[in-house]
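User: Could you write out the 3D structure of this protein bound to AFP? I've included everything you need below.
Assistant: Certainly. Input first, then the structure.
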Amino acid sequence: MYTSGTTLSTFIIEEKRRLGEQATGEFTGLLNDISIACKSIAALVNKGALAGVLGVAGSENAMGDAQKKMDLIANDLFINALQNNGHCAGMASEELDEILTLPEGKVRGSYLVTFDPLDGSSNMDINIDVGAIFSVLKAPKGKQDPTAEDFSRAGVEQIAAGYCLYGPSTMFVLTTGNGVNGFTLDTTIGEFILTHPEMKVPETTQEFAINASNQRHWEPAVQRYFADCLAGEEGPLAKNYNMRWVAAMVGEVHRILCRGGVFLYPIDERNRDAGGKLRLLYEGNPMAMIMEQAGGLASTGYGRIMEVAPNGDPHQRVAVIMGSKQEVETILAYHDAG
Ligand code: AFP
């Protein structure tokens, strides 16, 4: 008998049932909205130059990054998918200065969504992997429109997080707090199908990912760890390392989920006051939840990313060290040593 496999919606409904949770369908609807945004983005990313979506938009986002055309299109597609179906009460996007409330007349749902609609967008023009990252929080009860303060919550409060990787195939990877599952887009039927159940990060690794061009700015603990990695078998870590750098966090995290590794975007002297380079709400927290749910660790070097106290700025930054449990513990020992 031919089967089409387990679709994302079926998986979410079945998971709720398995856990004995009351399901109104709203959460399933919300994740469906997000998956529709991702499918629409995948279609355009896949067409690339044919769809006229390459190149810069001529604007900057809240962090002063030059926006690509596709950053803005992906942002619009997320907003469109989330504001019309009554599942979401408000959004925060890496591409927007302020949080976004729904237009008048739209039904407010029970959830808040944060997203980076096109992570690694400088990869777009060279046809290398890009992705989307999202996180879901409960909306405050009895409030028509959320404020920035309502998004200002530690990562441990996330009720779901995920990413969509636009690579050789399009993959949607999701956690709702019960492990991590990966779905591949079957473009012939337009559905995400469960292909990577219960993803687990291997505990050990010999692979690291860091932008080594920043080496001179890193803090001493990371300098020492990196030097010991390069020393290989003869060094204190006694193993030969491999290095990878996709320059899109979605790509790095996906590789780590599939075959182990560590990804570092540590504090460096230029971003020390800001707390790091990557964004806590749009990158740090969601990827930390996925990593931990898959058995890995996610730290700033000094504590769990998901316990970083939010400072009220939706564009707060954070240092990131995440991946295979034993390797992250090794890096934390370098930090403990000062
Ligand atoms: P964008 O979302 O602005 O494209 O940034 C991607 C990213 O934040 C992250 O995904 C990469 O790991 C990192 O930037 C790469 O940045 P550098 O080129 O500065 O190392």
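The first helix runs from residue 8 to 18.
User: Perfect, thank you.
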